[in-house]
Every structure is written in C-alpha cells, then in structure tokens.
Please model this.
Amino acid sequence: MLSQIDAVVENEIKKQKDELEKERVQFVKDKDIEFDKLFYEMNQLKIAYLEKVIQYRKQERQMHNDYSKTFRDIEKRLGMRSKISYLDNKLSINQRHQITGRYSPIITPDELRTAFVEAKLSFHTEKNKEAFK
Model:
C-alpha cells in the first residue's frame, strides 16, 4: 500500500516538475524576445552614435585643414595665436568623466558605469538632460 502511495506521489511530483519546467522555459523565451528587441534598439542607437562620431571627426579635420590653408601663414607672420571655435567642441576618447561647465557627447566610462551598475544617469548627465531635448 505504501509503495502505491509513493508511486502516486512520485508521479504527481513528476507532473508538477514537468509543468514547472514548461513555465520556466516559456518565461525565459518571452524575456529573450524582450531583450532581443532591447538589444536591437540599443545597437541601432550605438551605430547611429558612432556614425555621428565619424561625421564629427571628418568635419573637424576638414575645418582644421580649411583654417590652416586660409590663416596659418598669416598667423605665423603676424605672431598671432590660433583660436578656432572647434577647439571648444573638441572630443576626447580619453575623457573618463564629464567636466562641469562643458558637457561632452562622448559617453564616458563613469556615465556608462553609473547607468549600468546603479541604473540611473550620472550627476552631470542628469543635470544636462533637459538641455538636449
């Protein structure tokens, strides 16, 4: 009699375990779809961002070349120092954090860490968020 009860209990546990496994698989499958969509969107934004960095770099080089061709000789002859506006908008891939007073479009390790680890915007990013809407 006890062996029959054990068999029934064991059979019921197996059914419950199988149902639970189906639910777990479906849950992960549903979440994978959500994350795949999020990854796709993030990769689109990343590619668009990098394309803008490339556009900036090409435009910066062209402006610098045009400026040099136009003013470099004159500046040297007259002893003038070069001051062109793009220096105020210089991007640096070595920038580790945002600097007060000049928010850079480069994503810094500090900003990325704060977003990823703390799930929030860094202080400087939050402070400048409204300026770029």
Remarks:
- Residues 2-78 form the longest helix (77 residues).
